[in-house]
Amino acid sequence: MDWLGPEEWQAVRLSLRVAFWATALSLPFGLLTAYALARWRFPGRQLVNGLVHLPLILPPVVTGYLLLLAFGARGPIGELLGPLGISFAFRWTGAALAAAVMAFPLMVRAIRLSIEAVDPKLEEAAATLGASRLWVFLTVTLPLTLPGILAGAVLAFAKAMGEFGATITFVANIPGQTQTVPSAIYAFLQVPGGESSAARLVIVSIIIAMAALLLSEWLARRVAQRVGARS
Amino acid sequence: MTLKVSVSHAYDGFSVQANFEAPDGVTVLFGRSGSGKTTVINAVAGLLRPDSGCIEIANRRVLDSKAGIFVPPHKRRIGYIFQEGRLFPHLTVKQNLQYGQRFVPSGVVCEDLDHVVDLLGLAHLLERQPVGLSGGEKQRVAIGRALLSGPELLLADEPLAALDETRKSEILPYFERLRSELSVPILYVSHSAAEVARLATTVVVLQDGRIARQGSAAEVLSDPTVMPTGVRAVGALLAATVKAHHADGLSELDVGGETLFLPKVSQSVGQSLRVRVPAQDVTLALTRPEGISALNIVPGVISQIRSGDGPGVMVSLETAAGMVLARVTRRSAGQLGLVEGMTCHAVIKTVAIAPEDVGGPAAGA
């Protein structure tokens, strides 16, 4: 990949790292939230549902600003985490947090749909065969949902790669620190002669997005085959 | 007693109140759809928590609403065979069969895989995925899966209802084998008189959420006042022995000294079986008829004539073969002058007895 300059390459590497951690760390929470929304009836369920989807509807700048208020060095959560050595402000971890928050609704949606497609009657059957709720989840629900979970993760990864508004508001645009691919494209377009760098990053973005989309479509078809084949 | 049930449950303006004890063997919960059968069996399984009640499986209390006891389904040690099979689509047949084995408490002796595979004829299916199986094959796998979970009670909720007639006659013999070869009691939900006739040791009749009658299969099937599926399903249940198979496709049966010809049965000579003779397929004649095509003519004495609301009457005839029921019109009963105590002949058309009315060993009949 020597057609990418060092600065561009840095942005791609940072984006991959941010997107990977954003996806990996939010996956357990995404799974739990999706399962709860799909299978549990609890007070405040609609509120949780709304909160999860909020980043999808709010202007990203608003989400980024809210993150800054909460997780900034002076924010209530930031002050709490600061002494523990965890800081988000103007660091790549902040970019990962912003990307995770923005990608969360997509991830939860994909996983939730695939959990809802699992016939509860199969889970009942597993229970009558002696499986506790945890075993039912591990041996029936989870395997049947797996392609949906992977699809959700792929979508979240792609979204995290492309996140711009919330990231730049929350952690700014510092090369090597918080300058992801979209921020770098934006920055290159601000300077004369940056068009060719921007163009190369645009191509990289398109390739990654297309690959993720195709992978997620393929996984979605697999879940349909698996769960659709009810017996 | 292996199963004691006493539950009451209300939902959507319908209430179920059932109180019965099921001895060893096959207990059929018999009733038309909407009579509350599935509610009762799901309460036994723990898939439904009834408003109140008490359930004991093999002397273990799994439900006692007063004491606040509710044992969840996975700890009840039951095997449940559902109407739609409910095999796990992501597992092979073998993995489906083995699913429950890992949850069998240690120290419990239960069926081994080879025996069950052999019993249900599954050897050639083990590596297949459920999606490619026929309805009958799926149901056999479901039966095997339930057996291998080491149950103290087998539950079956209309396991044949989703199958066509051919598949039904393919699966029924397996349930008969379970009854005779295994010690696990079975609670079997059905709306089919033929299944009751073939399988039931005890019948519990459910009507509108209440138990209308409990008794042996022969008693319940011959009683038009409780037959939940209507007077057309009423029939006598006879215990027979195979005497010979003939080249013209008929089997000769001995029924208490009387001879009965039936379309060829699967049992071999000397074996016993149950035959259900539907009352509407029996004609009555005052004298022994000559020159008619029906092969089976059994003499007897009228022990009872019951008339219902419709144009028909139900005549019980005491014969050497046992009690035979005939459903004739009120008009012909009048014309023949039928009265209790009179001698007459029951004419049973050979082909009227369907294969699904003929069942294996007359155990507990």
TrEMBL record, chain A:
Recorded source organism is: Thalassococcus lentus
Task: List where the protein spans the membrane.
Answer: 20-38, 50-72, 92-113, 134-158, 198-220
Q: Which gene encodes it?
A: modB
List the Pfam families hit by this protein, alphabetically.
BPD_transp_1
Q: Where in the cell is it found?
A: Cell inner membrane; Cell membrane
- Using the record's annotation, list all stretches that form the ABC transmembrane type-1 domain: 12-214
Kindly give the InterPro entries that the UniProt entry links to this protein: MetI-like, MetI-like_sf, ModB_ABC
Can you name this protein? Molybdenum transport system permease
Report the family membership: Belongs to the binding-protein-dependent transport system permease family. CysTW subfamily.
* Major subcellular site: membrane
Q: What does this protein do?
A: Part of the binding-protein-dependent transport system for molybdenum; probably responsible for the translocation of the substrate across the membrane.
